[in-house]
Each structure stands twice: as C-alpha cells, then as structure tokens.
Amino acid sequence: MRILITNDDGINAPGLEVLTEIAQAIAGPKGEVWTVAPAFEQSGVGHCISYTHPMLIAKLGPRRFATEGSPADCVLAAIYDVLEGARPDLVLSGVNRGNNAAENTLYSGTIGGAMEAALQGIPAIALSQFMGPETNDLADPFEAARVHGADVVRALLDKGIWQAEADYRLFYNVNFPPVSGANVKGTRIAAQGFRRDTTFSADPHISPSGKRFLWIKGGPQHTPTQPGTDAAVNLEGYVSVTPMRADLTAHDVLAELEARFA
C-alpha cells in the first residue's frame, strides 16, 4: 500500500511523527509512506489552496517533502508532482495537536487535507488528538492516538463506507479523546457536534509601537456537544469517527424551499 501523510501543524510537528508510525504500521514492510507537509504551521487554513501564487517545495529526505503551502496544497503537490502520477492508495492527515471536533472542523487544515484527497477520488482520514488536563500530565500527550491510531485506521479500511463512485466521496474525521492510551474506552460513530455559547472571536491588542493588532482566539474546548456527537463522546473517553463529505448543500430543507418558491 502507498500512503501519503500530511498535516497542518508543520513538517516538524510531533503529531506528524505519530502519524508516520501509524502509516508505517498500515503500509507494512512492503508498502510506501510518503510525507508532503507544510514547511510552517498552517492551522486554521481550512481547505485553502494557493491559487494565486506559486509555492516552494523542497525534498528533505527519501519520500519526505515540505511545501510553503496549505495541507490541501500538499495533497495536490504529492499527486501531481512528487509521486509523478503514482497516486496514493490512502491519505492520512494529522495527527493534529488539539481536537477537530464540532465547529473546529470547519476551520481545520487537517480536515482540508483529507477533503482535498477525497475530492481527488482518494480514500482519506483526518486524525486529531483532543488535549486536556490528563494529556497535559502525560509524557506523550499523543498517547491515545499513538496506541490506538493504527487499529482505528485498519477498522475504517475494513468496515468503512467509502463510496468510490460518488461525486463527493466520503472521508473520515477521527478524534482521539483527551486521556491516556489505557483509558480509551473504545470507538463511537458520531455526528459532528456544535458547542453552544462558544465561538471563535477577535481579541484586540496594542503593540509597543502603538499599532493595533487582533488575535483570533477560540472558545472553551471542553464544552460538551449534544449527547452522542463527536466532542461529547471524546470527553467521555471514546474515539469519535465521523463520516464527512464536501457537499455543503442543506439537503433537509431543499423540498421546503422549493415549495416556498413555487
């Protein structure tokens, strides 16, 4: 199996090291693991692509490349340049430092990389490690992902629904709970949740030179979502697996909206 890995935390991020281990376990001794990741952190860029300017790409070692682009750029670079037409069998994006559950999903470059792979017709999984008080006290805050990541990916490859012929094919969003590897209770299939009463916001600051700057900041991450949804099951100690697709149509209101406009 040929696996491409990428992330949004950057080529030197510890989560990418964890993902490399996961990918190598899945690919096996006869497989290939290729890394194309951003040269610098690209958190929060979503599905952004460098459409209006070129990006530098550099080979750092065997099957290891860095670009000055987003995670989605990295997937495009791998498919159309690095691999020279030898498409990957699977794309893994992550392991993100911090959860990509609930509304975080919409901002995530980790999700953006997996989404681009799906749009290119390639099976893809995004993986993220929820952080919290328990992980902060661990020698390895990615322990849950490191211990359980390969098993979750294998289960998705074996039991997942992939819809290879769909125009907007499925990809998967996996979040590991903020606990030690031993305290992971299992895996739950979960819908994307929504954290009520918390949003991203802008925080103004004045620099020493008197100029006004804004920091974008997130809201509390341990606010539970509705029972059974992604962040809720993560906070209960479960790995969440959420099937996703890039089709943003609100299908549940199409018929009513058509009737109103008739």
Automatic annotation (TrEMBL):
Keyword Nucleotide-binding: yes
Binding locations of a divalent metal cation: D8, D9, S43, N96
Classification via SUPFAM superfamilies: SurE-like
Reaction equations catalysed: a ribonucleoside 5'-phosphate + H2O = a ribonucleoside + phosphate
Domain of life: Bacteria
Main localization category: cytoplasm
GO molecular function, one term: 3'-nucleotidase activity
Keywords, comma-separated and alphabetical: Cytoplasm, Hydrolase, Metal-binding, Nucleotide-binding
Names of required cofactors: a divalent metal cation
InterPro entries membership: SurE, SurE-like_Pase/nucleotidase, SurE-like_sf
GO cellular component, one term: cytoplasm
Cofactor binding comment, as recorded: Binds 1 divalent metal cation per subunit.
EC number(s) per entry: 3.1.3.5
Domain Survival protein SurE-like phosphatase/nucleotidase: residue ranges: 3-196
Subcellular location as annotated: Cytoplasm
Alphabetized NCBIfam families for the sequence: PRK00346.1-4, PRK13931.1, surE
Function statement: Nucleotidase that shows phosphatase activity on nucleoside 5'-monophosphates.
Family classification: Belongs to the SurE nucleotidase family.
Protein name: 5'-nucleotidase SurE
Organism, as annotated: Gemmobacter aquatilis
